[in-house]
Specification:
By secondary structure, the chain is an alpha+beta fold. The protein is built from three helices and seven strands; from the N terminus they run βααββββββα.
Length: 145
């Protein structure tokens, strides 16, 4: 079931990136698919700040959290050399899934450029869906200031 905007996770800034020339298209705007890379930066930094080291999670449990659904809403383009504030939040974690919400804003004027989310399933190496281990759940859902 999809969440309504009112149910979206509270967001906090997790990264600042500067748009490099290689991230832009012929029109000088960030190529649309690169926003998913920025989402990945946000997700990794969010998890790192939560004490949920993804590499250690994979090694300790032999489990993975692949993206199974992604949504991106493009409002305004980012351009070469823009500094972008990337915000992320985690919606309530399900038994075997987690949804990260994102917002990307231009740093100079705080203009919202892109919003979206990614949904992740917890799976084994052979693709079987399993519950998220308690220690990963605890790290992801711990209160933050």
């Amino acid at each position: 079931m999809r969440k309504t905007p009112a149910e979206k996770a509270p967001l906090r800034e997790v990264a600042v990136v500067r748009v490099i020339y290689g991230d832009t298209d012929q029109m000088g705007m960030v190529y649309y698919a690169n926003y998913l890379r920025y989402f990945e930066v946000a997700r990794n930094e969010y998890m790192r700040a939560a004490g949920a080291n993804y590499r250690a999670f994979e090694e300790a449990h032999g489990l993975y959290l692949p993206v199974v659904e992604a949504h991106v809403a493009y409002r305004r383009p980012a351009r070469y050399d823009d500094e972008l504030r990337i915000l992320a939040g985690l919606s309530p974690v399900g038994a075997a899934s987690a949804r990260f919400d994102y917002e990307i804003r231009r740093r100079v004027d705080d203009e919202p450029l892109v919003t979206g989310y990614t949904l992740h399933a917890c799976i084994t190496a052979d693709g079987r869906v399993v519950r998220i281990p308690p220690e990963m759940r605890a790290a992801l859902t711990a209160p933050r200031s």
